[in-house]
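thought: user wants a sequence for this fold. calling inverse folding tool.
action: design(structure=
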């Protein structure tokens, strides 16, 4: 796509969450494969995570760039990430990142990229790039269904959303309306309503999965939306396969085990932990459960989970704290389901590896993601009660249905077929997007020379 003497330089700027960084890293690899030189910018603590996930073959084409955030008393450097961040500090982290705008200006002025690709959570970054005559595109790291839903709430607040499959429960609606209200009340001139957006937006999905939502989003927002395919890491690129996990999985029957993980940015409440624990216990299904606690909360797994839980489940369950090689686990032959919070990166992996999803959305985009998965036939959702509370009986029922119930074969067939279609379509999507981005860079260079 680019010759050695004319390589274009792209500067990628994700939000400070692993669920956003991962697709940005996969996009960086795709751009590097097409001849781009790529800078990937984040906070130092996030770069330590990213550094271990860049294969050696990309060391000369993907460069990591540190962005220093200001020192705030309530937000020391180890909190410059959403991983393990206490929920009440999320807005403070967004504020701190925006306060780093002068640092980003200096970095862009020094690195002189041909293009900035920034997270939709950092719309202000486009203004920084524009002041340096650098073209930009935003990258939406979740699904088109969710983006079209929130855009609809902004633009047509009194009109019913046209797609029934994404109808939210009452407790989810209140959260969605709160997000819209906060955005409308933001007096920052760089935070605009969706109908005022211009330019180009990349989105990590495919028409194969979300054609009608991509079309509806484009109709509402009225700017170019480029699906770039689902961005999934190579499971063999994981830095640590954890032999103990692999040996344990090797003793389980095919499709007999579920992976339980709710992402790096969310910690279950005490009540949720208890309901999930009992739900898994009562299902009599094998499981690997990755449990995460907020930073500073030094609980042991024995303290956090119901008394006697480990003795009762025995070798049927493996519970671990912190991090696990999710991609490698999902590709193991014994895995038959993935209980997930429905973050888009996790969903994309599960579909690519042909694993049905037990949808247990927590917040933000996840309820829409879950309903999309149910609509396309690759997931069953654990429905909460009217107050948003989980119940062990519902968890047990869905787990058993996915692993050994009537829905099992249909779910497996659907997700396997979709994964195969997406792998083919993803190649076409990224090729088309790279052509558009290359043209954007060349158009800006022409205007500079006029």
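)
observation: tool returned 450 residues.
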């Amino acid at each position: 796509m680019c010759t050695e003497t004319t390589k274009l330089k792209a500067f990628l700027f994700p939000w400070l969450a692993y669920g956003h960084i991962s697709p940005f890293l996969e996009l960086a690899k795709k751009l590097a494969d097409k001849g781009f030189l790529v800078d990937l910018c984040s906070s130092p603590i996030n770069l330590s995570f990213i550094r271990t996930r860049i294969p050696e073959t990309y060391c000369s084409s993907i460069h990591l760039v540190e962005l220093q955030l200001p020192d705030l008393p309530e937000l020391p450097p180890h909190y410059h990430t959403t991983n393990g961040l206490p929920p009440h500090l999320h807005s403070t982290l967004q504020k701190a990142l925006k306060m780093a705008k002068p640092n980003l200006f200096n970095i862009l002025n020094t690195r002189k990229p041909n293009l900035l690709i920034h997270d939709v959570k950092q719309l202000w970054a486009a203004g920084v790039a524009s002041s340096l005559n650098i073209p930009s595109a935003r990258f939406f790291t979740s699904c088109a269904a969710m983006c079209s839903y929130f855009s609809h709430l902004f633009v047509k607040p009194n009109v019913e959303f046209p797609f029934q499959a994404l109808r939210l429960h009452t407790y989810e609606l209140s959260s969605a309306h709160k997000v819209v209200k906060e955005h409308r009340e933001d007096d920052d001139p760089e935070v605009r309503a969706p109908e005022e957006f211009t330019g180009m937006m990349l989105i990590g999905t495919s028409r194969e999965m979300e054609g009608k939502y991509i079309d509806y989003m484009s109709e509402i927002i009225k700017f170019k939306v480029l699906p770039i395919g689902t961005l999934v890491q190579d499971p063999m690129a994981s830095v640590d396969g954890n032999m103990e996990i692999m040996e344990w999985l090797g003793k389980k029957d095919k499709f007999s085990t579920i992976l339980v993980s709710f992402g790096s940015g969310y910690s279950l409440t005490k009540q949720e932990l208890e309901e999930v624990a009992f739900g898994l216990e009562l299902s009599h299904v094998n499981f690997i459960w990755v449990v995460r606690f907020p930073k500073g909360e030094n609980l042991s797994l024995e303290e956090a989970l119901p008394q006697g839980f480990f003795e009762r489940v025995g070798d049927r369950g493996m519970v671990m704290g912190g991090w696990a090689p999710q991609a490698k686990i999902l590709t193991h032959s014994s895995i038959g389901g993935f209980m997930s919070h429905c973050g888009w990166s996790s969903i994309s992996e599960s579909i690519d590896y042909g694993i049905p999803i037990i949808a247990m959305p927590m917040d933000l985009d996840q309820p829409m993601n879950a309903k999309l998965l149910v609509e396309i036939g690759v997931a069953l959702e654990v429905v909460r009660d009217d107050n948003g509370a989980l119940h062990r009986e519902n968890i047990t029922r869905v787990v058993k249905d996915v692993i050994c119930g009537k829905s099992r074969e249909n779910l497996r067939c659907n997700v396997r077929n979709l994964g195969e279609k997406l792998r083919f379509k993803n190649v076409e999507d990224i090729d088309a997007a790279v052509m558009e981005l290359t043209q954007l860079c060349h158009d800006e260079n022409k205007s500079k020379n006029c």
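thought: summarizing for user.
answer: Here is the designed sequence. The mean pLDDT is 89.
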